[in-house]
Amino acid sequence: MAATKLQGGAIRTTTQETRISSHHSGPLPSPQTLADYEQLQPGSIERIFSMAEKEQESRIERERIQLDADIEHRNVLTELQKNAHRGTFISDYLGQVMGFIVAMACVAGAIYAGAFLDRPWVAAILVSVPTIGIINAVRGMKGNGRGQ
Asked: What does the alpha-carbon distance between residue 36 and residue 38 come to, in Å, rounded to a whole number?
């Protein structure tokens, strides 16, 4: 603090403040701090480095275990998705096969009813069943985007 006399007997005081700060970031203390620790407790630098190395090894191992678990989880999910797609494909395929069998049975029944039983109205009903089913299937494909 400095004081200066002014005219008329007044005194002006000035204060100057200087701050010095440092910042260190990292897993280990700053070199100065390490030197201070070593001065207080000889051998402490070696112990600090050993602890840091063990912590790093532990962290690497935990991350490896987590990555392995993530990979296994993704593999399981991929397999489940494959099975779901396979099940959907089989279900769709069986539905088409069964639909074809029913349609052919209706057509065969219509031919038999029309040609051998002389029942044209039965033949018309038997032919209309698969025809209506096909029309509904085509209309449904246009509605849900599967036919595109």
From this structure: 5
Structure tokens at 99: 């639909």
25: region left, alpha or beta (phi > 0 left; psi from -120 to 50 alpha):
beta
Instruction: Establish if 32 belongs to a structural domain.
Output: yes
Residue 37 lies in a domain: yes
Of the candidates 126, 129, 130, 134, the one whose C-alpha atom is nearest the C-alpha of residue 109 is 126
Q: pLDDT 10s digit of each residue in the chain, 148 long?
A: 676 777 777 777 778 888 888 787 878 888 888 899 999 999 999 999 999 999 999 999 999 999 999 999 999 999 999 998 998 899 888 988 998 898 889 889 988 988 888 888 888 988 888 888 888 888 877 665 554 4
Report the C-alpha gap between 84 and 29 in whole angstroms. Answer: 54
12 in any annotated domain: no
Residue-number span of the structural domain to which 125 is assigned:
28-139
In a domain, 1, yes or no: no
Evaluated on CA atoms 96, 98, 102, 108, the torsion sign reads: positive
Q: Spell out the alpha helix ranges (H) of the chain.
A: 31-40, 44-115, 120-144
Split into its structural domains, the chain has a count of: 1
